[in-house]
Amino acid sequence: MSSPRRQEIISTLPSLGWLIAFFALPCLISLTLAFRASDLRGGVGDGWTLETVKSLADPIYVPVLMRTVGISFITTMVCLMLSLPMAWHMARCSVNWRNALLLLIILPFLTNFIIRIFAWRSLLHPDGPLKHLLVWLNLISEDALLLNNIGAVMLVMIYTQLPFAILPLYAAAEKFDFHLMDAARDLGATGWSAFRKVFLPGVRQGIISASVIVFVSSLGQYVIPQFVGGTMDEMIGNKIVQRAFTDRNLPLASALSGALLIMVMIPVLMMTWRERRARA
Amino acid sequence: MRSLLFLLALALPAFAADTLHIFTWADYISPETVEKFEKANKCKVVIDTFDSNESMYAKLKAGAKGYDLIFPTSYMIQLMVTEGLITELDHSKLTHLSNIDPAVLDKVSDKSMRHSVPYTLAYTVLACRSDKVSNPESSWSIFERPDVKQRMTLLDDMRESIGAALKSLGHSINTRDEAQLAAAQEVLLRWKAQAAKFDNEGYKAGLDSGEFTLVHGYSGDLWQVAQENKKITLIVPQEGTIMGCDEMVIPKSAPQAALAHAFINHLLDAEVAAENMQWTGYLCPNTAALKKVDPEFLSNPAVTMPEAIRAKSEVIQDLGADLAKYTKVWDAVKR
């Protein structure tokens, strides 16, 4: 073994060990539980069974699954659309501005996530300030509701995930050579087609990482639908909580988590595969 | 300094008197009641709390030892008895057992108090904002009123919400009949279309702030909110409702079983129970103590539940394998 290779292994060992102990092993344990019999007392019974995994084919999961993927997909698309101009602007503005903007993006993380969701609940309250303003502006009717519906879930999802789209896109845009845009304009491209044909391919890597990060972390959300969603807005995360706590069926909760894990793995593996192909 | 001394006292059990370890819900026994017991028995009482029957059960099952007295809900006690975790009570040490209301005993599964003694009784009720819902009817059918659409909540609890739908149809909340459950599912789907949320926690604040105008919740909690906000009215559905009974049990592993018996007897004393229930806000089914409480406390609809409604109300029972039938309905409702 060559010495740089060995050094690489030694330097990644601590984080690798951490991931094995606190990520890979727990995942494996929970996946194993999916193949154990369930126990009515809320524990895990003896013996092995494939029934739990087979029960995932039950059509009751279809709407929840479609909703989870749909909400995550729309969140990803809207976050990309909002963060592309932001990343463009941040890459081109002065250093002071850029630092101020970065600080503003990171600022919400200084408060607790749950507290921010509750702030949204107050803002969207049926007697809240936003409702009164919109009614006063004649934009919505008196009985329109802003809270406890799919619109509120989407709004808070996009709000929560937006920084995770802006940061990788900004990192990519910062490395982009904006002289290429001038060159495109010189060669007769309109502003829009230069953006589309030169800038977007130039920050492709950033777009891919932003999409994967936002999509993957959206798939596993359950707090947002629980707090700002209504009765029709459950995601797969809420189902897992129900299986584990109300139904006292740990193997089924594990099987569902396994399904979620596979859903999460697909985009991540696709990204790794593309990266490897691009390098080759 | 005081807490330091307290810790020190805990660390030196050899010098301390006997210690009684209680495992119960938060704020569930008045400090005065505990102090009186400590003085009379020259012992120390240590209270540890749990937030759900399931977590308490999981802890015991995982081998937690050292608890002398536990306060689970009656359906969980059935399970704990079958698992052999609970000891039989020595009735000769429980001189105040006769204070327990026989009407309540009739509702729980352990009617002869072999393993458990009822501690409190709570009901699942409704509450509305009287300024937003006019002439609320005392019936589960209030969930179908057009003026509460998207402004009402249902409990995010399978047994509670399916139970309410079953009660609205006049069926038992512990039914194993699939046709009755299918009918309840239809009712629940209609209610769901009306509901803003399935919610177990936020409904109190939501009702107070006006986010919701009608909520499905527990009598003790709703009584407390109604005390703060005069626009809130409690509604008891005349078709009957679900009663929750928390009971006292002594685990087989209890190191101080005799002291635990003494504590149960202390809580059953009429004077003590009267003081205790006014502090916790929950009804203790203690006939002698109810004669000693403040009349204002008795205006709580959960305490003076009309006899006709109480007779139609039931306690949730453990259904074993048939619980899957409820899960199926709940899945169909929540999809």
SSE blueprint and pairings:
The complex is a heterodimer of chains A (280) and B (335).
Chain A (H helix, E strand, L loop, with lengths): L2 H31 L2 E3 L5 E5 L2 H4 L6 H32 L2 H12 L6 H11 L5 H8 L13 H26 L3 H8 L4 H12 L1 H16 L3 H6 L7 H11 L3 H30 L1
Antiparallel strand pairs in A: 1-2
Chain B lengths: L1 H10 L7 E6 L6 H11 L2 E6 L3 H9 L7 E2 L3 H9 L19 H4 L10 E14 L22 E3 L3 H11 L9 H17 E4 L4 H7 L4 E5 H10 L3 E4 L6 E8 L7 H12 L1 H11 L6 H4 L4 H4 L8 H6 L1 E2 L7 H12 L1
Parallel strand pairs in B: 1-2, 1-3, 5-6, 9-10
Antiparallel strand pairs in B: 4-7, 4-8, 4-9
Report on the architecture of this protein.
The complex is a heterodimer of chains A (280) and B (335). Chain A is an all-alpha fold. Chain A has one domain (34-279): MetI-like fold, CATH 1.10.3720. Chain A contains 13 helices and 2 strands. In chain A, a hairpin with a 5-residue loop joins β1 (36-38) and β2 (44-48). Chain A is globular and about 70 Å long. With 335 residues, chain B is α/β, with parallel strands linked by helices. Chain B has 2 domains: 2-119 and 245-298, Periplasmic binding protein-like II (D-Maltodextrin-Binding Protein, domain 2), CATH 3.40.190.10; 122-243 and 304-334, Periplasmic binding protein-like II (D-Maltodextrin-Binding Protein, domain 2, 3-Layer(aba) Sandwich), CATH 3.40.190. The longest helix of chain B has 17 residues, at 178-194. The interface between A and B is medium-sized, with 25 and 31 residues.
